[in-house]
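TICKET: design request
STATUS: open
ATTACHED STRUCTURE:
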């Protein structure tokens, strides 16, 4: 199906949303799988809310995800590509005017002079009568004299598209199966041009899809009720009707519709949180689609090869951040060492700027740490929490964390001093297993719980309770710095006050 033509048409009125990114990805995968064409079109007619910053965010977000279009507008200094442009709606205004004039000439549309106040009165009457909101057709059959009278009053008309009554619009949705919607449920004749001549969404999307010869419209489930309007517009324009596929909504963990009040929705925010594009694309693809196997870790090439709209679920897809973090960790494990170090560097620079580390580690230092770090990173941004203590001159452990539950402050100080003496003897053999073995003998001889001593050492040298494996951590910190931090912890215990209960 090399004649497949699909599109993503975001409005630059906000940052790239998870739902938009997932829809763009499914369109992209569908086109690439079938050897078709993927089109990027900007719906920028909302000039009050559209901004260049949002446009940049959308474009950079799609590039970050690895989604490249075959046709699209001029962006970032690159020229427009494709033979069906322009690909910005604000540059296509003449085509909307021409299409509206054609519908008016064929009596498929008409001028409506109803004022906002008159429409509001009718809406309230319908509400009081418990009737669905619907335009009453007052201007649907005006004579030339009646139109002229309204014109003399200074009324500026909108253009309405005629919606037939008592007709069922039926179509076979690739995801949802056979769908039928009665035109009586569409709210009456549809405004397609405002009184200032600017077009509305339903009209522009139909005109553009027809002009660009879109073969498949793949979009969110929330557009399902709009489809009959678009089908009627395609018919009126004499255009071929594309096939439709309405994707399931992405849901909050509580299965409510995704909202930024409950779930982070900006793609860029996930990038800033340290998710990598390989994992994020992988996860987005699995929101509502599966291969039909147990495989979860899939590259973009894997996704292109296997993608099938028929395997998209019709039920909502719950966004699970823990699963995303697990998948992100799987992809981080696969990164070559030089690549991972390069990707970690911006996050370490953020730690340095925030004062959470005191110097930037060298590539050599990072390379030595990767065997410990790479297996434990859920996100790139977690690197500071995981190893930031290595790049500080000193740490000040919380006494409440430093003292195990079975020990008091005096016992902790005394036991750390014994452990310190054993570690001090290992200057020439400062390797993980050679530090661990004599400390375990100490624990056994004294009848202590190993977890108590090892947690006290961990907190003394790192200031935290969760780190990479303790003895690997001590090796990374080094002999001199380890003993110095243990000494400072002992001094704090001997001079400090008991931690509050």
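STATUS: resolved
RESOLUTION: sequence designed for all positions
ATTACHED SEQUENCE:
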């Amino acid at each position: 199906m090399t004649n497949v033509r699909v599109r993503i048409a975001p409005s630059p009125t906000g940052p790239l949303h998870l739902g938009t990114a997932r829809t763009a990805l499914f369109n992209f995968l569908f086109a690439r799988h079938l050897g078709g064409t993927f089109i990027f079109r900007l719906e920028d007619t909302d000039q009050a809310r559209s901004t260049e910053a949002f446009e940049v965010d959308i474009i950079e977000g799609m590039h970050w995800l690895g989604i490249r279009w075959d046709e699209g507008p001029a962006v970032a200094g690159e020229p427009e590509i494709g033979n069906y442009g322009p690909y910005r709606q604000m540059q296509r205004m003449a085509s909307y005017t021409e299409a509206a004039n054609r519908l008016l000439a064929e009596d498929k549309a008409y001028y409506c002079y109803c004022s906002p106040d008159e429409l509001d009165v009718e809406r309230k009457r319908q509400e009081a009568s418990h009737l669905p909101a619907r335009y009453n057709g007052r201007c649907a059959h005006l004579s030339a004299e009646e139109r002229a009278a309204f014109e003399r009053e200074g009324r500026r008309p909108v253009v309405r598209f005629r919606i037939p009554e008592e007709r069922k619009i039926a179509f076979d949705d690739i995801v949802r199966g056979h769908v039928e919607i009665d035109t009586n449920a569409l709210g009456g004749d549809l405004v397609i041009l405002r009184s200032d001549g600017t077009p509305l969404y339903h009209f522009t999307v139909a005109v553009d899809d027809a002009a660009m010869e879109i073969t498949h419209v793949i979009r969110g489930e929330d557009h399902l009720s709009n489809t009959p309007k678009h089908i009627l517009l395609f018919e009126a324009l004499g255009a071929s009707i594309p096939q439709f596929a309405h994707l399931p909504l992405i849901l909050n963990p509580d299965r409510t519709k995704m909202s930024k009040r409950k779930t982070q929705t900006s793609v860029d925010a996930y990038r800033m949180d340290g998710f990598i594009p390989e994992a994020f694309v992988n996860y987005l693809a699995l929101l509502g689609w599966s291969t039909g196997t147990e495989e979860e870790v899939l590259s973009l090439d894997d996704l292109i090869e296997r993608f099938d709209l028929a395997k998209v679920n019709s039920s909502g897809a719950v966004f699970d951040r823990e699963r995303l973090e697990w998948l992100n960790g799987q992809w981080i494990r696969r990164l070559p060492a030089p690549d991972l170090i390069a990707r970690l560097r911006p996050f370490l620079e953020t730690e340095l700027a925030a004062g959470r580390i005191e110097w930037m580690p060298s590539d050599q230092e990072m390379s030595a740490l990767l065997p410990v770090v790479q297996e434990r990173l859920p996100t790139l941004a977690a690197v500071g929490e995981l190893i930031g203590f290595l790049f500080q001159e000193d740490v000040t452990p919380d006494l409440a964390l430093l003292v195990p539950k079975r020990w008091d402050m005096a016992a902790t100080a005394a036991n750390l001093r014994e452990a310190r003496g054993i570690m001090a003897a290992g200057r020439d053999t400062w390797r993980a297993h050679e530090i661990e073995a004599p400390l375990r003998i100490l624990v056994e001889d004294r009848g202590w719980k190993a977890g108590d001593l090892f947690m006290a050492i961990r907190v003394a040298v790192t200031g935290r309770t969760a780190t990479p494996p303790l003895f690997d951590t001590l090796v990374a910190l080094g002999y001199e710095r380890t003993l110095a931090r243990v000494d400072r912890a002992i001094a704090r215990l001997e001079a400090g006050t008991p931690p509050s209960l």
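CLOSING REMARK: The chain has a mean pLDDT of 94. The two ends are 70 Å apart (CA to CA).
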